[in-house]
Amino acid sequence: MTSGSARPKASRTLRHSAPARKRRFRRSGADRTPPRGQHRPQAGQISFTEYADLWMVQRPSLRPRTVELYDYLLRHYIRPEFETARLVDITPARVRSWRANLARRSNIGPSTVAKGYRLLKTMLGTAVEDELIARNPCVLKRAGLERYDERPIADVEPALR
Length: 161
Prior knowledge:
- The chain is 52% helix and 0% strand.
- By secondary structure, it is mostly helical.
- It has a domain of 95 residues: Orthogonal Bundle (DNA polymerase, domain 1).
């Protein structure tokens, strides 16, 4: 093509572009998710404790230390808040409140809070895949990140002396 050649008309290319496809998809109504627990009869009625036990059993390839960590997090931090809740009753507000309460406790470090949140998010993500709930209520941005203080770099000079 020469540098002065005309571009194709937008009407021809826009129709096949990703934004245009997304617009058509939204207009069709296909992206509307049914209310929580309504997309399958009895979906989401299982208790969190029951689902957490099932989730753990379905992961035989987890390493023993990982199983220990998950059991610890479930027993001490997650189950006390969610054990009687049905999956469909776990809302973003409840998750946010649970995480904030954990973060305020002086005997729990930020790393443990992040690990607990990530485990809950993973379990509820699987519940979404299993079509037990419509959406994962763990929607907090950066809540599962562990932040560490920067470690000082060792000086080589004293070590060589």
